[in-house]
Design a protein that fits this description.
The chain contains five helices and no strands. It is an all-alpha fold.
Length: 105
């Protein structure tokens, strides 16, 4: 069997064990104030790192293109509490406009 399949099977088993552990762990360990705070912060950190990675990811390194001003505009709009669907549409329109004009293509 190819070594890649062993890695896939091992990762699948690890995920299964972690999911199963979630059902076995007593509620008092999961519902504490410290764990709730840490879970919230980890979620924010993971989402932020995903947004940054997808914004600057290029073919072979960092790339600055129309995604950067679009994400910056989305951040400003979210700061002013604009509805999320409006944020998505306006940021996508900005990225499309910049690419259509040939700026930051």
């Amino acid at each position: 069997m190819d070594p890649l399949w062993w890695i896939v099977l091992g990762a699948s088993a690890a995920v299964f064990v972690l999911k199963f552990a979630g059902y076995v762990v007593p509620q008092r360990f999961v519902q504490g104030p410290l764990l709730s705070r840490v879970a919230g912060l980890v979620t924010i950190g993971l989402l932020s790192s995903l947004v940054i990675a997808q914004t600057f990811q290029g073919g072979d390194g960092l790339q600055v293109d129309a995604r950067l001003p679009a994400v910056a505009l989305a951040g400003v709009l979210l700061w002013f509490r604009v509805p999320f669907i409006v944020v998505i549409v306006v940021a996508a329109a900005l990225a499309a406009l910049l690419r259509a004009l040939g700026w930051m293509a």
